[in-house]
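Per reviewer request, we include the raw input and output of the structure prediction for the construct analysed in the revised manuscript.
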Amino acid sequence: MSARTIDTLADPEAVAQRAAELIADRVRACVGERGAFSLALSGGRVERMLVLLDGKDVHWEAVTVFQVDERVAPYGDADRNLAKIERALPRASIVAMPVEDEDLAAAAGRYAALLPGRLDLVHLGLGADGHTASLVPNCGALEVSDRDVAISREYNGRRRMTLTYPAIDRAREVLWVVTGEDKAEALAKLLAGDETIPAARVRAPVQTVLTDQPVPYP
């Protein structure tokens, strides 16, 4: 059973600020306890949150940033999530998904071997179609239960490398950052546990939802 906290804020800027504050707080607490912090970041509408996070007083030397998902594209391609992360977090130690490799299945296995046994925090977005990470509708990666990293079907013109449900569900905390009216319907399904969308199948024990959309209550 997951424990979920929902915080509805005024607008995307307020959501980005709150998300940056929450991540910074978790970094400080975890580094104080165990000396290290592992953070997995998604793409999407993330840059403002990351810029604000970069301005926080945290021990970046103790933080390792992993990718939740990445498009299969050359290094430096504007479609890559990595470009956003590197630009916004210049002080971070980033472990990039090896999507430039010819053998993507082998590359996914190598990336999985780099992950900690349990990520401290996984940041997730939410697509209007209900996908999260690159766990997209009608994709074989949704059914992967024996690997932490998989390759998705082609989606919006790109195949992707993605964390799977097992890796996400072992995380100490999942932070959902959901903004925009185009996400309202998918958000309602997520909060209702409607497993017709991939996002609602995330089972991490602690989940925080930050949004600028009205939260529907039954």
